[in-house]
């Protein structure tokens, strides 16, 4: 192996910058956050006081953390199914031979490549209770009689953020579903049609089951992304009103960079890692069990 490494030394030279960056900003960060989770540190004082599992004990008793977990689960379990449905519907439509489908594919995918900060700022103006476009058109259509505080109402803030997230990410699901649809052998679909299966029956019994690997990939990716929701929360609501949109990552940000509790914030980080890990393993096992059947 050493002889082979000496022979291919140039390849390792090219790999070295990426390896160093990964080691410094990822591996070291992970190890250091685990170290900090057992210490008390305010980031301004170099001294780090060892407190053992005190941060984790406080985490289990913290009502604000429990609220952040509830908000995050609400965001995850509402946004992902709706995003998948929107992406699958758009993919089924744009997989047909319709005029301008290339244009619409690009149009629906545009929010995905638009910087999230810019999109969130635009939607914050749309949701504005005083001069937002949403209230303006709803009043014009006589659907509301007075302006609605979409981001200022605790019961409407999170659904409003979820609606934005669906708009921003369903294009990604659409593209992945399009790839899955185009990978399905048309002979199988045509055979079902010859056997008398209607359009809905072909989709239910042929197309959708063959999209199972695609759906599994999307669910895993979106669960990981949704648990880490931060930018749209920070820009649109800052965790408010009264904590109704505070997610786990935003709560971690507050503890670390507003209250300077780096140890406690690191404990929140590792709690998030455990939750994402458990959800991912559960999804893999469910998919593997269904694949065996």
What percent of residues are in strands?
Answer: under 5%
Structural class: mainly alpha
Rg from alpha-carbon coordinates: 24 Å
Stretches where pLDDT falls below 50 for ≥5 residues?
Answer: none
Kindly report how far apart the N and C termini lie. 43 Å
* Number of DSSP helical runs: 14
Largest sheet, in brief, is: 2 strands, antiparallel
User: What integer is the average pLDDT?
Assistant: 90
What topology, given as strand order, has the largest sheet?
A: 1-2
Order of helices and strands: HHEEHHHHHHHHHHHH
Helix content: over 70%
Task: Provide the CATH superfamily.
Answer: MetI-like
Shape: globular
Q: What is the level-2 CATH architecture name? A: Orthogonal Bundle
Extended strand count: 2
CATH topology: MetI-like fold
Overall tally of structural domains = 1
Q: What is the CATH C level class, in words?
A: Mainly Alpha
List keywords for this structure.
single chain; 293 residues; mainly alpha; MetI-like fold; two-stranded antiparallel sheet; 14 helices; globular
Description:
The protein is mostly helical. The protein has a single domain, classed as MetI-like fold, CATH 1.10.3720.10. It is built from 14 helices and 2 strands. The chain has a two-stranded antiparallel sheet with strand order 1-2. β1 and β2 (49-50) form a beta hairpin. α5 crosses α8 (157-182) and α9 packs antiparallel against α10. The longest helix has 32 residues, at 63-94. The radius of gyration is 24 Å and the shape is globular. The two termini are 43 Å apart. The model has no long low-confidence stretch (mean pLDDT 90).
